[in-house]
Amino acid sequence: MYSHVCLGTNDFERSFSFYEALCTALGLKLRFKDQDGGGAAWQPADDDRPLLFLTKPFDGAPAMPGNGQMVAFLAESRAAVDRAHAVALAAGGHCEGLPGLRPHYHPNYYGAYVRDPDGNKLCVCCHRAE
Length: 130
Known about the structure:
alpha/beta; 2,3-Dihydroxybiphenyl 1,2-Dioxygenase, domain 1; 2 helices
């Protein structure tokens, strides 16, 4: 459904370290990293899309997280959600919701929420019954 998602950063190297750890925990691979710190992208291990881009804003203005915006990563299991949440916190993220079932979404929804170092809200979730 999506070609790519782009997240802005004000400190590329700090955010790159965060996303490199999180994406590795989720089984995503680095597609590229600009040598000048201008951007990076990750992709599924077995496909070339969708991409997650990390970049400084093109217009040179500060990157700012939106209110009500969130990127959700699909995990293969509840254990993978737990691991990704722990990795994100260890890499400089801030907890926005501990891993757990959210039956008000649907009976098998298991998710965790973090803010990246720039304040972007992220979710890691699994929809499988375990």
